[in-house]
Amino acid sequence: MIAIDKLWKEYGDNVVLENISKTVQAGEFVTLVGTSGCGKSTFLKMLLGMETATRGRLLMDGAPIRTEPDQTRGIVFQQYSVFPHLNVLSNVIIAREFEHSPLMGKLFGRQKTQVIEEARALLEKVGLANAALKYPHELSGGMRQRLAIAQALIRKPRVLLLDEPFGALDPGIRADMHKLILELWREHQLTVFMVTHDLAEGFYLGTRLWVFDKVRHDPQAPGAWGARITYDLPVGKTPATTVAAIEQSLKLTEQKFDANTGETT
Ligand SMILES: Nc1ncnc2c1ncn2[C@@H]1O[C@H](COP(=O)(O)OP(=O)(O)OP(=O)(O)O)[C@@H](O)[C@H]1O
């Protein structure tokens, strides 16, 4: 369904991603881990169409991914991306209105009634039915992320992109969110790409885990080489020794990164 073919991303002299080739089938749940700054968010933005490849191709069902976001893909960021001046229900409805009419941003009549019903059903699903008329500042962090997920899902995306969506949440709330996202993934038959800093979370949630890492380093030119996918693991079948090796390699890379920027740790 998604084919990544010899993909490169460079910002000027800074090579971020280097020659990545992968295929992902519909319904997979891919978790992405790697050191800070190695290009995970950039990769998600390319899947979304916010960023373009400098070399190579990114195909969805055989066609190049459109260079602007559309309703086939939805994204949830770590920082809450909801509209502060709208209540919960309106935040979900507006996400659908923008899709129908980006310039006017308004739906009327039967269409509007239908969207309100869909929005209420989604709020029920994500556990916000009783908070429909509250404003974002009245919500907890976990509730705001539930709202951001509902906003992404009302557009009925096939691919859901999650950029550390639970990074700012307490462990107990995170466990609830894990349960929710797995339910939504199955019910909506989504293909999910999720960035996380938490290797255990990546192993727990994903069907497949990718490690982004630089294979080559030049201390004189930190941007000369980009990250590749150094591990592609079917999650749940990974021996503990491999998990330990990955953790070790990530720590080593982090130290090299610090040496490159001249910072001591
Ligand atoms: N719009 C941009 N212009 C120039 N450089 C950029 C831009 N966006 C990202 N970069 C650079 O690309 C590299 C990868 O950034 P990215 O945010 O994708 O990393 P990341 O792996 O998601 O990091 P983190 O885990 O800290 O969120 C960094 O060196 C960053 O400075």
TrEMBL record:
<dbReference type="InterPro" id="IPR017871">
    <property type="entry name" value="ABC_transporter-like_CS"/>
</dbReference>
<dbReference type="GO" id="GO:0005524">
    <property type="term" value="F:ATP binding"/>
</dbReference>
<dbReference type="InterPro" id="IPR003593">
    <property type="entry name" value="AAA+_ATPase"/>
</dbReference>
<dbReference type="Pfam" id="PF00005">
    <property type="entry name" value="ABC_tran"/>
</dbReference>
<keyword id="KW-0067">ATP-binding</keyword>
<keyword id="KW-0547">Nucleotide-binding</keyword>
<feature type="domain" description="ABC transporter">
    <location>
        <begin position="2"/>
        <end position="239"/>
    </location>
</feature>
<dbReference type="InterPro" id="IPR050093">
    <property type="entry name" value="ABC_SmlMolc_Importer"/>
</dbReference>
<dbReference type="InterPro" id="IPR027417">
    <property type="entry name" value="P-loop_NTPase"/>
</dbReference>
<keyword id="KW-0813">Transport</keyword>
<protein>
    <submittedName>
        <fullName>ABC transporter ATP-binding protein</fullName>
    </submittedName>
</protein>
<dbReference type="InterPro" id="IPR003439">
    <property type="entry name" value="ABC_transporter-like_ATP-bd"/>
</dbReference>
